[in-house]
Design goal:
The protein has nine helices and five strands. The chain is elongated, with a radius of gyration of 19 Å. Helix 3 packs parallel to helix 4, helix 5 crosses helix 7 and helix 6 runs antiparallel to helix 7. Strands 2-1-3-5-4 form a five-stranded mixed sheet, with helices on both faces. The relative contact order is 0.15. Strand 4 and strand 5 form a beta hairpin. The protein is of the alpha/beta class. It starts with a helix and ends with a helix. It has two domains: 138 residues, Rossmann fold, CATH 3.40.50; 79 residues, no CATH class.
């Protein structure tokens, strides 16, 4: 196990997330909530990699780990994402695993009462499709007066998209517009349009304020996790 990963497992609460950018985001949020010292954050990779990654990490879980949480994107179906996470978790537990007596929570955004406690959060929320990027986009929309260049640029692009032929796939176009809107905000940070930060990088640098009430449910989940 690499040195940094070993340090994460030495903490008594383990948070499993999808990718490196998620790790950046939640590292900053947990620092803001003064939880980072007791919270280990481990990436599992994309959804198709979760089972293999979790199987390799299970053996590193010890009795001192009193809480374990999973945060992943809803993608196209939040309920399916929750059920997939439960399936991978149960399939990863062996009879000699420290997690063999653990109970998976009944609902997202909650914790089981087993030892260790198990919790799951689906992004952006348990009732919405999407991802961490969608949650960050909600933040930018709420604070759009702080990013006038991005707002004007995106509205221009949006108007152009309305002029496209009507037979184009509207659902696909909407998805593209959401991605372009997020990138408009991210690329406007520091007024540098030559590149765009990722949501995790923007949060780490303080451009996304993760104490904003857009993230209230997520913050409450992490605070409950720390109990």
């Amino acid at each position: 196990m690499i040195k940094d990963l070993k340090k994460e497992f030495e903490k008594n609460r383990l948070l499993f997330v999808e990718g490196e950018d998620d790790r950046r985001f939640f590292s900053k949020m947990s620092e803001k909530l003064e939880l980072r010292k007791s919270l280990g954050i481990i990436t599992l990779g994309g959804v198709t990699e979760w089972k293999v990654s979790l199987l390799s990490y299970i053996k590193s879980i010890r009795d001192n780990h009193n809480s374990i949480a999973f945060i992943r994107d809803a993608d196209n179906d939040p309920l399916e994402a929750f059920n997939e996470t439960r399936k991978v978790f149960l399939e990863s537990i062996s009879n000699n695993s420290p997690l063999k007596a653990s109970v998976f929570p009944e609902y997202p955004e909650s914790f089981s009462s087993s030892s260790p406690r198990i919790g799951v959060y689906i992004l952006p929320t348990k009732n919405e499709t999407g991802s961490l990027e969608d949650l960050c986009l909600q933040y930018f929309k709420k604070e759009k007066q702080k990013f006038p260049c991005a707002e004007e640029f995106f509205q221009c692009l949006k108007q152009k998209s309305k002029e496209k032929k009507t037979h184009e796939n509207k659902k696909k176009l909407q998805s593209i517009l959401l991605e372009v809107e997020l990138q408009s905000y991210l690329s406007s940070l520091e007024n540098n349009f030559s590149f765009a930060y990722t949501p995790g990088e923007a949060t780490k640098k303080g451009y996304i304020d993760c104490s904003n009430d857009i993230f209230e449910d997520l913050k409450n989940f992490l605070l409950e996790f720390a109990k």
